[in-house]
């Protein structure tokens, strides 16, 4: 059976590292993995979407609407935009952080209100303050690994396997912070 995971956020939030950790972990578990990254002005805080599909044999990395088993969302508006991709019975894990997109910054649009409530009304959602957990780990940029920890806690892959992958994927100088961030997400602290 194939698992479809969509990772969404904005440029600079570490979605690509999160997809590498996920992809490497499932490869180490013996799964066939396909990853596809879609960048929309990611250098300027625009949307970044990564598709990760794994299973016995995966033919395409693309996830269509209604196919995502899990959506890992680093920001509220990106979570809301991704909702159509969540399959019936799927789960969305959302960082309760708002990052204003360019139209809001320039005054051309208004950031929507009560997005977390709207997401929870439409889906099985776990909304958490990953930014505070990342600060607790020692670096606000570790939100990505906090969210990977949350997702890992819901997976069938053992904790130790995720930690092994983080140790081989994250640069040494950031390893301690990222291991703490993973633990905080995994344990739900």
Describe the structure.
This protein is of the alpha/beta class and 189 residues long. The chain has a single domain (3-187), classed as Pyruvate-ferredoxin Oxidoreductase, domain 3. Helices cover 42% and strands 24% of the residues. It contains eight helices and six strands. A six-stranded mixed beta sheet has the order 2-3-1-4-5-6, sandwiched between helices. Helix 5 (130-137) packs across helix 6 and helix 7 (159-169) runs antiparallel to helix 8. The mean pLDDT is 92.
CATH class label: Alpha Beta
Tally of DSSP β-strands: 6
In the CATH classification, which architecture applies?
3-Layer(aba) Sandwich
User: What's the shape?
Assistant: globular
Give the number of domains. 1
Overall pLDDT score:
92
Number of helices: 8
Q: Determine the structural class based on helices, strands and strand pairing.
A: alpha/beta
Strand arrangement in the largest pleated sheet: 2-3-1-4-5-6
Secondary structure: elements and pairs:
Elements: E1 3-10, H1 15-28, E2 32-39, E3 47-55, E4 68-73, H2 76-82, E5 86-95, H3 102-105, H4 115-122, E6 124-128, H5 130-137, H6 143-153, H7 159-169, H8 172-187
Parallel strand pairs: 1-4, 4-5, 5-6
Antiparallel strand pairs: 1-3, 2-3
Please supply descriptive tags for the structure shown above.
six-stranded mixed sheet, globular, 42% helix, alpha/beta, Pyruvate-ferredoxin Oxidoreductase, domain 3, 189 residues, 8 helices
